[in-house]
Write a structure and sequence with these properties.
The structure holds 2 protein chains of 2 kinds.
Chain A lengths: L2 H27 L9 H8 L5 H14 L5 H11 L1 H14 L5 H8 L4 H33 L10 H17 L10 H29 L2 H12 L12 H17 L1 H9 L7 H17 L1 H11 L9 H8 L3 H42 L14 H27 L5 H12 L3 H9 L5 H24 L13 H23 L4 H12 L16 H12 L1 H14 L11 H15 L1 H12 L6 H74 L6 H33 L7 E4 H14 L7 E4 L1 H4 L2 E4 L1 H18 L6 E8 L5 E7 L6 H4 L21 H11 L3 E4 L7 E6 L8 H10 L1
Parallel strand pairs in A: 2-4
Antiparallel strand pairs in A: 1-3, 4-5, 5-7, 6-7
Helix pairs in contact in A: 1-9, 1-16, 2-9, 2-13, 3-7, 3-14, 3-16, 4-11, 4-13, 5-13, 6-7, 7-8, 7-16, 7-17, 7-18, 7-20, 8-16, 8-17, 9-14, 9-16, 10-14, 11-12, 11-18, 11-21, 12-16, 14-15, 15-16, 16-17, 16-26, 18-20, 20-21, 23-24, 25-26, 27-28, 28-33, 29-31, 31-33
Chain B lengths: L7 H30 L1 H4 L2 H27 L9
Helix pairs in contact in B: 1-3
Classes of the chains: A mainly alpha, B mainly alpha.
């Protein structure tokens, strides 16, 4: 087995993972993700904790320091034994606030502080660098174990590994900007890798335990011989290190960016912690106790100078078990790969949300809500920021690997990362259990702890500073960690005790400590946010479709139709949290402030809210259900009442108008026919007058045709003639017909011909009628100086077809939007329109008849109509048919 | 508002929640204290057996406890 073969095998392996992740992502996109949303997948994905450190480093660690290596797994064991108590609370609160990362959690708890988020991100990036370097180093080290002597490996293996993993992370971590930070493809891939690394480690462990040693009793005897052997004093447990490392690893399993990501962000609900609470420790125990036989047998059998980090490969190789060694290599590669990919995704989300986007917002001081002429796509900007961040994170890991020269023991690099990230723990725990913890306290504690960590642990690990001199008898690492954490905690508590936090922060503290949804948010006093501005903002981040869907659901919940809900405090708080699920709480809050120019709450207002709340809470609970129902009904009634009032007035007006419309041509027909009766009329005049009579009669006929058409549709007596038609041809015909009746203005038509080639099953003539009507309306009413019409067509996720017709005019005023689909509702002066205001009413009836709908989309920077068709037209109604036969 | 007294099922569920709190503390005591007090005794084979046994027991207890919690009827306000 040569390194080249193994390299090729790894490439094939990565390609397989690519396919798997791709398939899972596709299934998730199609809504078939229930099967991968199981507790067992969640538990397996947690095993990303077992990185290459566990695979190679743990054996080296055990060889050098004995049982101390177990501390790295005992810490998580303790934390997960309390999963139903501690972790469940963490997951619940994080889901409540749609937290995207550990930095987001802490920033959100401490008043959505952008500074705190940026600070935690910085620590995350610094601490993860040695950890990623560890993975890269392990892969190149493992390959070197296979190289025959005098046959050196190419020097840049670590670089190629880094490039490949960055590509994987970019492809599957930054596909789209979801409203929650879940990545099904990646999770499935790491769950499968978890199985592979467990199988590989079990195989080599069992082989060593029973194939090379004589079972557990023999291994224990070998361990006991260590006590009296030469290298045995390193095995003696050092109490301060024992305690410190258990505490550190317990912290790490919650606060390491990748662990927080799989444990909290990817968790769909808290109930799966019931299984993970025992299954994940079982996984860890199986992996960690097999380390012992490999370590002691390696020490006994392998030559003195060999690298203990590679015993796990060297043992099977020394016995000529090449296939087993290759399996072990793949297991180690899996563990390195899943760690680097998940870390890169988690860190890039943090860097993009907390560094790059706030920077960009600060650089651009313009209002974000204007449906700007140049509609910049914020979503793409954010995805690109993440891609950049992934390259930076993995690149930094590679640089660290280069700087340290790739010679450090793996476990030493891992503990540097753990101790750095642990500086976040005091703020996180205090934030979840103590309402009095404040932002300034958290910042002071984290900064002080991180500085001590940087000086006493991080820089020495790079060889850039000397390790601090502690009094003899105190372990330098344990001393530095305990000092940093103690100063961190002390500052956090002391400053919080004398501080007086801002109202936003106090609201968040209440919500985090008591795990209650913050319905009345700081946006209570929002003065002038426009629903449409929010819709535009959301559209720029999530894409128009998702934004429209969110707004439609919110409006529906309030009992309103259409896309614009009332801006109640509840809606605003929910919307901000939804936004925070994509960009983080601090950025979401900044965006909302930018759109609405929102003022902040005062302490007096806060106390008023709280006082009322506690008095009324009990009453409210009982009243809430009934009143919500009542409010919904009332909103519906109000809406329909307003509509009825306006319609009734319009009906009267229409009756007058229709009489007028019929009478005007009638009058001229009568007048001209009287003139025609004059015997001595010149032939030229005679034919001219006859022409006028004909035109007027035609106008009357058209009006009557429209009225008849409408009454046929409304009474359900229309005949559906379904057929299959290419949408492109239909739009082509509609444009030609609409163009024929246009008023001579030049319109720019923007289409996407490729996307339009969609087969549609419907009544083509009826659909054409609708298209012609909407397009000619756009031509008639668009008041832009350079008028343009844009037509987008595509399949909807449900299999139907959607056609959006935009123009760039001023659109339809909000107060008129409810009326445009009603009969005779012509909005401006009748002289500009050629009909009696029946066009859109007919369109609406036709679309209902075809089983689809036509609606007005607000916030698109002009008038925009969406025509939606079902996958197939509805079946004709038997009852009406027979009734019609009976009467006809 | 939390009720002051509960029926049998809800009472049982609260106590299961209490057990879930005790378990990690107990496990932490088992694995942290003995090696710190008697490093000489727990550094080698006996330590490995001790840690393996206490961890295996804890995992089994957690599994049983979580199963019981899952079976218990969900309480109205289980955020105890």
């Amino acid at each position: 087995m040569t390194p080249e073969t193994l390299g090729a095998a790894s490439v094939v392996y990565v390609a397989l993972m690519f396919l798997l992740a791709h398939a899972a992502d596709r299934a998730a996109a199609a809504g078939r993700w229930r099967w991968m949303d199981r507790p067992v997948i969640y538990t397996l994905s947690l095993s990303v904790y077992c990185s290459a450190w566990t695979f190679y480093g743990a054996v080296g660690y055990a060889t050098r320091s004995g049982l101390e290596f177990l501390t790295i797994y005992l810490g998580p064991g303790i934390v997960f034994a309390g999963a139903w108590w501690g972790l469940r609370r963490l997951v619940r609160v994080a889901r409540l606030h749609r937290v995207t990362s550990i930095a987001d959690l802490i920033s959100s708890r401490f008043g959505k502080s952008a500074a705190l988020a940026a600070l935690v991100t910085l620590i995350g990036v610094l601490a993860s660098t040695p950890y990623i370097a560890l993975q890269l180093q392990s892969v190149s080290m493992a390959l070197s174990a296979f190289a025959s002597s005098g046959h050196p490996l190419p020097g840049n293996i670590a670089l190629w590994v880094a490039v490949g993993l960055a590509a994987f992370a970019i492809l599957f971590g930054t596909r789209n900007l979801a409203a929650n930070e879940r990545h099904h493809g990646v999770v499935i891939a790491i769950a499968v890798e978890a199985v592979i690394k467990l199988a590989a480690f079990l195989a080599v462990g069992a082989y060593v335990l029973w194939g090379m040693a004589d079972g557990p009793a023999d291994v224990l005897a070998r361990i006991d011989r260590m006590a009296v052997s030469a290298g045995g004093e390193g095995w003696q447990i050092r109490p301060e290190r024992w305690f410190t490392l258990i505490a550190l690893s317990g912290a790490a399993v919650m606060v390491l960016p990748r662990m927080f990501h799989v444990l909290v962000v990817e968790a769909n609900d808290e109930s799966r912690l019931r299984q993970a609470g025992w299954a994940f420790p079982a996984y860890l125990a199986a992996m960690s106790f097999l380390v012992l036989p490999i370590a002691v047998v390696g020490m006994d059998l392998l030559p003195k100078g060999s690298n203990p980090d590679l015993y796990v490969l060297a043992l099977p190789l020394s016995q000529g078990r090449d296939t087993l060694a290759a399996l072990v290599f793949l297991g180690g590669f899996s563990s390195a790969m899943s760690m680097v990919v998940v870390s890169a995704i988690a860190l890039s989300t943090m860097m993009a949300n907390h560094w790059l986007v706030p920077l960009w917002l600060w650089l651009r001081q313009t209002a974000l809500s204007e449906p700007a002429q140049a509609r910049e796509d914020l979503g793409t900007l954010m995805l690109n920021a993440r891609r950049l961040a992934i390259v930076a994170v993995i690149g930094a890991g590679w640089l660290y690997h280069r700087t340290t020269g790739g010679t450090t023991a793996l476990a030493a690099m891992g503990t540097v990362a753990f101790s750095g990230m642990a500086q976040v723990l005091p703020a996180m725990v205090a934030g979840l259990v103590w309402r009095g913890a404040t932002r300034r306290g958290a910042i002071a504690g984290i900064v002080a702890g991180a500085l001590i960590w940087g000086r006493a642990i991080f820089l020495p690990s790079l060889g850039l500073a000397a390790p601090p001199a502690f009094p003899a008898g105190i372990d330098a690492f344990a001393g530095a960690v305990l000092l940093a954490l103690a100063v961190n905690l002390l500052l956090l508590v002391l400053i919080s005790l004398v501080d007086f936090p801002e109202p936003t922060e106090r609201l968040q503290a209440l919500s985090f400590v008591h795990a209650i949804a913050p319905d009345a948010s700081a946006s209570e006093t929002a003065p002038a946010i426009q629903a449409e501005a929010l819709l535009t903002l959301a559209g720029r981040i999530w894409g128009n479709d998702h934004a429209l869907e969110v707004f439609r659901k919110a409006a529906e919940g309030q009992g309103k139709s259409g896309y614009l809900p009332d801006l109640t405090p509840r809606f605003l708080a929910g919307f901000e949290r939804h936004l925070a699920g994509t960009v983080g709480a601090a950025t979401a809050s900044a965006l909302m402030a930018r759109v609405g120019g929102r003022g902040s709450v005062t302490v007096a207002e806060l106390m008023e809210v709280a006082g009322e709340a506690s008095r009324a809470r009990e009453d409210n609970r009982r009243l809430e259900l009934t009143s919500a129902e009542l409010a919904r009904t009332a909103a519906m009634l109000r809406e329909s009442n307003e509509k009825l009032t306006v319609l009734s007035a319009q009906k009267d007006a229409f009756l007058g108008q229709i009489s007028h419309e019929l009478r005007t041509p009638m009058t001229s027909i009568r007048a001209f026919s009287e003139i025609l009766m004059e015997p001595d009329l010149p032939a030229a005049d005679r034919s001219r007058f006859a022409g006028i009579i004909q035109d007027e009669a035609g106008r009357m006929t058209r009006l009557l045709d429209d009225l008849l058409d409408l009454s046929v549709l409304e009474s359900g007596r229309a005949q559906l003639k379904p057929g299959i038609v290419n949408l492109h041809d239909l739009i082509e015909r509609a444009l030609a017909a609409g163009g024929a009746s246009a008023a001579g203005r030049d319109f720019a038509i923007r289409r996407n011909p490729v996307a339009e080639h969609l087969p549609v099953i419907t009544d083509p003539d009826r659909l054409l009628q609708v298209l012609i009507n909407v397009i000619s309306n756009a031509r008639k009413y668009c008041d832009a100086s350079e008028p343009a019409i844009r037509i987008d067509a595509r399949r909807s996720p449900q299999g139907g077809t959607e056609i959006d017709i935009h123009d760039n005019g001023s659109g339809i005023r909000p107060e008129n939007r409810a009326l445009i689909f009603e009969k005779f509702a012509r909005l401006d002066d009748p002289s500009r329109a050629g009909g009696a205001g029946l066009g859109l009413a007919i369109c609406k009836e036709i679309m209902g008849f075809l089983g689809g709908s036509i609606s007005y989309l607000p916030g698109q920077g002009g008038a925009c109509f969406r025509i939606a068709l079902p996958p197939r037209p509805p079946r004709p109604h038997r009852g009406t048919e027979s009734a019609e036969n009976a009467t006809g | 508002m939390r009720r002051l007294f509960l029926g049998r099922d809800a009472y049982r569920k609260r106590r299961l929640g209490d057990a879930a709190r005790v378990l990690p503390v107990l496990f932490a005591v088992l694995v942290v204290l003995p090696p710190i007090w008697l490093p000489q005794y727990f550094s080698y084979g006996r330590g490995a057996v001790w840690l393996a046994a206490s961890w295996a027991l804890t995992i089994a207890a957690t599994a049983a406890l979580h199963r019981a919690i899952g079976r218990a009827k969900p309480e109205d306000e289980d955020d105890a």
